[in-house]
User: Which sequence fits this backbone?
């Protein structure tokens, strides 16, 4: 089975969203976090934002999520303001944020209306946890909890999936599993994905484009056209990883 | 005899021994039976109180007072706790005043309450209600305030707001803390009731104890004390049962 190109993906998935950030400034009190930032994300694209902690990468994600307002500048989804666009964005966090008082299936169905059970069960099956549907979240491992959180985000058929370091608390093997799962589901469902991470290797593996943020501004913007599924023995990937790491280290 | 049997018997040596010594003291009249009635006399009086229906007549009254007081006081405490947990204005407006009133022992209000309400039901229910209100208020407030802000943000992201947000996230998140408040309130409820029922009454377990005192019926006084102990234990068991049901998801209850 051939992997669809970006152009193909965005046409077969009309729902995905194109995001435009123009001259974004964001400050908290006296502290400026983002300075005059411009970024365009294509519909269906997988963009990964890397940067040291405190660089403003998470703030950028929260702005796109609509959880924070920019101090100045504007963000548009398919040329509409965030509030006007009826597009659904969902988010995965560093911690799973599963409600401990709801069973796995009820967590996945959170916020769904009408006949949601079947949809939730199908999505849970996609992440391979159907048989855990009636368990309490606290009985699952960290990796399983993040899978449930992924199902909860996907059941809404989002046009944009925001990922705020969702894999950073997992062990290396589970993380690789999750990266493959996220990539697979993104390829199948064709939403636009925006991932924040400090793991450059993860960025190189998943991204169509890698953005490096330093001191509130974009200092690298690299296209990654290596074919999927990607293998770390690929020389191009290794070079890209090295280039990004060097740029991070020099500052 | 095997070890298991011995281990089962050991905890009961002191209680049973006490009753035996008690019976010995009473039947030899080493201490006047008017002060310390024999265990057997207590049992007989208990049987008579049950058969005449007198015991249930008084118990019914006490339970009614306790429950009405708990519902009113607990209800107000719960609503205030929720309101102050959710609204900063409501918190600023009422919390300082509530904390001032909380520091008055509710039984210190008794003389005033008798002037206000007289000696009828209102006075007793008022005292119980005031007593149970604060533990429930404080623990509900604490429960709401301690919900992980991440859950609320996540809930909003997934479209929950208003009543849905309250029902799915705020209330279940606060529930463990509310149950702590409830169990604490039950203790205060009985203490308040015991004292409140000693002010002029014509019905209730406290009344039974007061009249028994006037007639030197120490057996009946002992029965009322045991009754209060049983009431307290049963109430706590019911609360625990409710807690186990409602908090099945909680780490401490998952088997």
Assistant:
């Amino acid at each position: 089975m051939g992997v669809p190109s970006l152009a193909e993906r965005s046409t077969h998935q009309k729902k995905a969203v194109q995001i435009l950030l123009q001259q974004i400034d964001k400050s908290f009190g006296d502290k400026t976090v983002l300075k005059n930032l411009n970024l365009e994300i294509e519909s269906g694209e997988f963009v990964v934002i890397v940067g040291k902690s405190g660089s403003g990468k998470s703030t950028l994600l929260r702005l796109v999520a609509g959880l924070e307002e920019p101090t100045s500048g504007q963000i548009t989804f398919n040329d509409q303001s965030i509030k006007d666009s009826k597009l659904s964005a969902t988010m995965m966090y560093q911690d799973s944020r599963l409600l401990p008082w709801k069973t796995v299936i009820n967590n996945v169905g959170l916020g769904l209306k009408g006949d949601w059970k079947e949809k939730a069960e199908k999505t849970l099956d996609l992440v391979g946890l159907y048989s855990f549907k009636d368990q309490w979240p606290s009985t699952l491992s960290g990796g399983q909890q993040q899978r449930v959180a992924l199902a909860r985000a996907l059941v809404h058929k989002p046009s944009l999936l925001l990922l705020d370091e969702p894999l950073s608390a997992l062990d290396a093997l589970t993380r690789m599993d999750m990266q493959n799962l996220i990539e697979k589901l993104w390829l199948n469902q064709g939403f636009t994905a925006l991932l924040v991470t400090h793991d450059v290797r993860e960025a190189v593996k998943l991204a169509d484009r890698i953005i490096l943020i330093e001191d509130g501004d974009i200092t690298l913007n690299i296209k990654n056209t290596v074919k999927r599924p990607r293998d770390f023995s690929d020389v191009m990937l290794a070079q890209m990883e090295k280039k990004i790491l060097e740029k991070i280290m020099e500052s | 005899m095997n070890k298991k049997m011995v281990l089962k018997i050991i905890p009961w040596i002191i209680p049973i021994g006490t009753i035996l010594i008690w019976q010995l003291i009473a039947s030899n009249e080493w201490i006047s039976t008017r002060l310390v009635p024999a265990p057997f006399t207590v049992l007989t009086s208990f049987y008579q109180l049950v058969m005449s229906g007198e015991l249930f007549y008084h118990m019914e009254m006490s339970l009614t007072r306790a429950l009405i007081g708990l519902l009113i006081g607990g209800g107000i405490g719960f609503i205030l706790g929720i309101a102050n947990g959710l609204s900063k204005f409501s918190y600023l407006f009422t919390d300082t005043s509530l904390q001032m009133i909380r520091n008055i022992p509710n039984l210190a209000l008794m003389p005033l309450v008798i002037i206000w309400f007289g000696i009828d039901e209102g006075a007793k229910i008022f005292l119980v209600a005031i007593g149970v209100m604060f533990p429930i208020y404080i623990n509900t407030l604490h429960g709401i305030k301690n919900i992980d802000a991440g859950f609320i943000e996540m809930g909003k992201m997934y479209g929950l707001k208003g009543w849905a947000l309250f029902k799915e996230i705020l209330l279940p998140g606060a529930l463990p803390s509310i149950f702590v408040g409830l169990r604490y309130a039950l203790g205060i409820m009985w203490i308040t009731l015991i004292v409140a029922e000693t002010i002029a009454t014509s019905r209730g377990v406290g009344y039974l104890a007061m009249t028994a005192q006037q007639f030197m019926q120490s057996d009946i006084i002992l029965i009322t004390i045991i009754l209060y102990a049983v009431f307290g234990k049963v109430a706590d068991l019911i609360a625990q049962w409710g807690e186990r049901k409602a908090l099945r998801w909680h780490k401490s209850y998952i088997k």
